Amino acid sequence: MNNAEHFKTYGFAVLRELATKEEMAKLYEYTLQNVPFGNLKDGQVNGSPSFYQDKEMKKYHQKLWPKLEEETQVKLQATFCYYRTYRKGAILRWHKDRMAAEITASLNIGQQGELWDLWVMDADENAHQITLAPGDVAIYRGGKLNHWRGKLVNADYVSQVIFCFIDQAGKNHLGTVTEWLNKSYRQCRKWLGIKW
């Protein structure tokens, strides 16, 4: 079964080595330098700095977009991206993504220590354990499938970037509108000098 068939059947696919180790090493260093400046209270994984619409990650969003479409055979519309550097002890609770993240691609950038598994529950309620090395991507229907990560024990400074899309063939145009409003709200807060 190829990636497109797997994505269609199960709602997710694992894409190996979509980015090079050299690219990831450089990007990982970038994420480590930014740790002191991240949002520590994003409401999802407090204490692990997160960054919404980071300029470097937006470049990767654009770069990987055609590859993700090719691998899944789904016409995608980019909505937003963010990355987080998870600290030891972090837990990403079981959840589904918001409308603007109908389809989510999670790229492992790097970590200090062991690889930290992502879990995805398919439509038949089977849990799938996904281990991503730096440069690997898990793409899944984040708005439909529950996904999570158990407590981070054997690593620290785990940097992951999430690229979010909607399916252009679908009817989720509200996801694009709500994300535009979210971006505008954040930009206004930035202009006014209001912290998180």
Care to describe what's here?
The chain is α+β, with helices and mostly antiparallel strands and 196 residues long. It has a single domain, classed as Sandwich (Jelly Rolls). The protein is built from four helices and ten strands; from the N terminus they run αβαβαββββββββα.
Short description:
This protein has 196 residues and is α+β, with helices and mostly antiparallel strands. The chain has 4 helices and 10 strands, in the order αβαβαββββββββα. It has a single domain, classed as Jelly Rolls, CATH 2.60.120.620.
Any chance you could write out the topology, listing elements then pairs?
Blueprint: H1 3-10, E1 12-15, H2 21-34, E2 50-52, H3 55-72, E3 76-86, E4 92-95, E5 103-113, E6 118-121, E7 127-130, E8 137-140, E9 147-149, E10 155-167, H4 173-191
Antiparallel strand pairs: 1-8, 2-3, 3-10, 4-9, 5-8, 5-10, 6-7, 6-9
Number of separate structural domains: 1
pLDDT averaged residue by residue: 91
Low-confidence stretches: none
What is the level 1 CATH name? Mainly Beta
Q: Give the helix tally.
A: 4
Task: For this entry, give a set of tags.
alpha+beta; 10 strands; 4-stranded antiparallel sheet; globular; 196 residues; Jelly Rolls; 6-stranded antiparallel sheet
